[in-house]
Specification:
222 residues, mainly alpha, 11 helices
Length: 222
């Protein structure tokens, strides 16, 4: 829903990595909102590293809030907050059956269709593209929502947030391979800062296993 409209779309790699602040936000929100967890200093340090990495994505000219791409950057950031909030809320609503995800997807699809009619030109995929889209919806993309809900309700939330940071790196490599983004030192540094922030914020670098996190995970499984 909040993904940038074509008229205000920033560079694809920049918007993609900003939106992929959601794993780091999951780490922070989990320590703040979930029972048995608390927000620690390492979570704040990880958050600062992640946002510095996002700021570097705009390049040496800095973040121009009055520029033409500002609505797109804000929309990408809003998308990160929406998905991270939804994910942590799934843990808080662990008693809700995973089948309820189907209704969430249906509602999101309806809203997306309305926004499409309001802001986008209509176009239909042809040939193999149509079958590829259908296969993605019925296969990996569709099933991902259900498996993610199970992971948030029964798994280690911070670890899942950490592991999710493989996604922006892979997506950036795909954009570069497709010619939609150019490799640069600033892009690499931004990716390292964001992923490093997720590592720090998860507490994995400290080498300690927090008993409260384990007890919270076990209690949610029961």
């Amino acid at each position: 829903m909040p993904w940038p409209r074509p008229s205000a779309s920033p560079p694809a790699a920049n918007a993609g990595l900003i939106s992929y602040l959601w794993p780091l936000l999951i780490v922070i929100l989990a320590g703040w909102l979930l029972p048995g967890e608390r927000l620690r200093g390492i979570h704040l340090v990880g958050g600062v590293c992640g946002f510095i990495g996002a700021a570097l994505l705009v390049g040496p000219d800095g973040f121009d809030w009055s520029g033409e791409y500002t609505p797109g950057y804000l929309a990408a950031l809003l998308a990160a907050f929406i998905w991270s909030g939804y994910s942590v809320a799934s843990r808080l609503l662990a008693r809700t059956p995973t089948t309820a995800v189907a209704w969430n997807c249906l509602g999101a699809a309806a809203l997306a269709f309305v926004c499409h009619l309001a802001w986008e030109p209509t176009g239909w995929p042809e040939g193999a593209n149509l079958w590829a889209i259908l296969a993605l919806g019925l296969g990996p993309v569709g099933s991902a929502f259900f498996t993610w809900d199970l992971g948030m309700k029964r798994g280690h939330v911070r670890l899942l947030g950490l592991m999710s940071y493989a996604t922006p790196l892979c997506s950036t490599l795909v954009l570069i391979a497709a010619g939609l983004a150019a490799p640069s030192p600033s892009l690499l540094l931004a990716a390292l800062l964001i992923c490093g922030g997720a590592l720090i914020g998860s507490g994995m670098l400290s080498g300690r296993k927090h008993r409260r996190s384990r007890e919270s995970t076990e209690s949610s499984r029961g």
